[in-house]
Amino acid sequence: MSTEQSQKTKYSVLDLAVITEGQRPSEAIQNNRDLAQYIEKLGYTRFWMAEHHNMENIASSATSVLIGHVAEATESLRIGSGGIMLPNHSPLIIAEQFGTLATLYPDRIDLGLGRAPGTDQATAHEIRPDRMKAVHNFPDNIKKLQHYFSPDGSPNGIRAIPGQGTKVPLWVLGSSTDSAHLAAEMGLPYAFASHFAPQQLFAALQVYRDNFQPSDQLDAPYAMPCINIVAADTDEEAEWLATSLKQMFMGVVTGERSPMPPPVDDMSGLWTPRQRAAVRQMLSCSFIGSKETIKQELSGFLDETQADEIMIASYLYDHEKRRKSHRLFAELMKEI
Q: CB-side exposure of 77: number of CA atoms within 13 Å?
């Protein structure tokens, strides 16, 4: 990896307030806030949470509420959504929520926007029966948000108060070339969900950079892929810890979103060959091992993607091991 690239690659965290076996949601939320306080001291740029619904293993459903909870406990870390699933909501309500957050915590709030439901179809229908119409209006609703956050407010005279004039930075989130085209056309920073949907990563990054149009928010393309990290003192320990991650993603494949289980010594009896292949494909942008092992592998990934920033998800059963994984990652990012 070139010196120039390493100097400009920032690093950030995605944390879903994951609920582990035997844990109460309140404990997962407290760990989420504790992790933000911890990584703020390690040089991370931002800390994002994501909107998910009807999942026993994720406590970040009320994302804007948690953003305020974490922002209040930190000082300089950027706090945001990775993301808010905009078709679930009225753009005005989101503008008011994030405008309020930006008023309370100036220049620290990010608004990452996705168009997926963040849940199963039955739950998505319960959230908003006309959701598919809102999906088609996703680009227009992003423009509405831009108006609400601008000093002039919306052209139809409806204003977000608080919100107007806060200029909350918007991000487009995605896992396909469709989202890349949209981010490029609107001149917005682009976060790619390669931590669970890596198939179109490189194609999407090329589309985004080739088609980028400068905007009032951004002069040049800015891309941030998300990856999974499980770092430990040894490769063997990291592989053992990562069995919790693999079991959690097996739940994604089977539809069983149970609280995250503890590590196991052997996964062979827990999944079928087809489930194993599906999980491995989803986790192909995962870096598991000692600091030195991850450093060697990640250097090549950063060279290939030319990422402006990297966001990590570190799903570990034990909270202290999770903190340590984030510390080791921060250390290796300072070395490459």
A: 29
Is the distance from CB of 310 to CB of 9 less than 8 angstroms? yes
d(CA 187, CA 219): 8
Neighbours of 334 (CB within 10 A): 11
Helix (H, G, I), strand (E, B) or coil at 62: coil
- How far is residue 248's CA from residue 21's CA, in Å, rounded to a whole number? 11
Cis amide linkage into residue 221, ω under 30° from 0: no
- Looking at the DSSP bridge assignments, the partners of residue 174 are 192
The residues with which 227 forms a beta bridge, in sequence order, are 312
d(CA 4, CA 261): 41
Residue 272 CB neighbours (<10 A)? 11
Cis before 83? omega within 30: yes
Fold of 3-232+292-335: TIM Barrel (3.20.20)
For residue 56 the two structure tokens come to: 């026993």
Residues 114-134 have a mean pLDDT of 84
Q: Give the pLDDT score at 159.
A: 95
Quick one: pLDDT at residue 328?
98
Cα separation, 113 vs 134, whole angstroms: 13
Q: Which two tokens stand for residue 98?
A: 């994030």
The enclosing H or E element of 114 equals strand 109-114
Residue with tokens 């194609």: 203
Taking CA 82 as the corner, what is the angle to CA 5 and CA 221, rounded to the nearest 5 degrees?
40
Domain residue limits, the chain:
3-232+292-335
Query: Nearest 5°: CA angle at 141, between 137 and 145?
Result: 175
pLDDT (tens digit, 9 = 90+) per residue, 269-297? 999 999 999 999 999 999 999 999 999 99
> Is 174 in a helix, a strand, or coil?
strand
The residue assigned the tokens 């053992």 is 240
